[in-house]
Write a structure and sequence with these properties.
about 210 residues, alpha/beta, TIM Barrel, 8-stranded parallel beta barrel, binds the ligand Cc1ncc(COP(=O)(O)OP(=O)(O)O)c(N)n1, binds the ligand Cc1nc(C(=O)O)sc1CCOP(=O)(O)O, binds magnesium ion, thiamine biosynthesis
Length: about 210
């Protein structure tokens, strides 16, 4: 499967009270990867939400990725995204199997991406490219990093951090394969607007 297009990431606070309708609207507009990102420790709610997302992803033929938690991903047979403090990649690959999608946060450091590639990552993620309402303190990355990463690392490149329809085009022009977005997608006033934004993010890939 080609990892290219919109990478939608959920946010439990932003989506409170409208979680499934907003996610479904995004899937309806077109999502290559959907990441379940929940920083709470409410395990019962996490299980319920992952199960619901899995059903939606099956209907829309979208790949589900769990943030932070390789064991939870293994339980549902889905992929995982691991940051630098979320545990090592090699055992996660062993746990999830060769076909699972495993992503790795590399901030603005190509060395981290090379290491992730050697340990079996499926994609590498760089950021933050813009001011992020969700994670304002994430280390900043420069857009030129994308071209350098594409030249050095033979894996899909995900970009993240403050991405909106107004600033995303140059990221794709510089070679980004996946636009990972929370606020710029789900910070919308209606499900119709979420779908419209998802379609518009994807259209950026067909115009290049
Ligand atoms: C696609 C993607 N890229 C980066 C991150 C950030 O991961 P991490 O650094 O572990 O931070 P948290 O998201 O866990 O707060 C991501 N989740 N997804
Ligand atoms: C979860 C996350 N990680 C980042 C990084 O740079 O590693 S930026 C970020 C937040 C992404 O949300 P938004 O699209 O609302 O800015
Ligand atoms: Mg993490």
């Amino acid at each position: 499967m080609k990892l290219r297009g919109l990478y939608a990431i959920t946010d439990s606070q932003l989506l409170a009270g409208r979680f499934l309708p907003y996610v479904e609207a995004a899937l309806d507009g077109g999502v290559t990867l959907l990441q379940y990102r929940d920083k709470s420790d409410n395990q019962a709610q996490r299980l319920r939400e992952v199960e619901a997302l899995l059903h939606l992803c099956e209907r829309y033929k979208t790949q589900l990725i769990i943030n932070d938690d390789a064991e939870l991903a293994a339980r549902f047979g889905v992929g995982v995204h691991l940051g630098q403090t979320d545990g090592p990649l090699t055992p996660a690959r062993t746990l999830l199997g060769r076909d699972a999608i495993i992503g790795s946060t590399c901030h603005a450091q190509l060395e981290l991406a090379e290491q992730a590639a050697s340990e079996g990552a499926s994609y590498v993620a760089f950021g933050r490219f813009f001011n992020s309402q969700t994670k304002p303190g994430a280390p900043a990355a420069d857009i030129e990093l994308i071209r350098r990463a594409k030249a050095r690392i033979k894996l899909p490149v995900a970009v993240i951090g403050g991405i909106t329809l107004d600033n995303a085009a140059p990221l794709v022009e510089h070679g980004a394969d996946l636009l990972a977005v929370i606020h710029g997608l789900f910070g919308a006033d209606s499900t119709q607007e979420v779908s419209r934004r998802a379609r518009a993010f994807n259209a950026l890939f067909s115009s290049i």
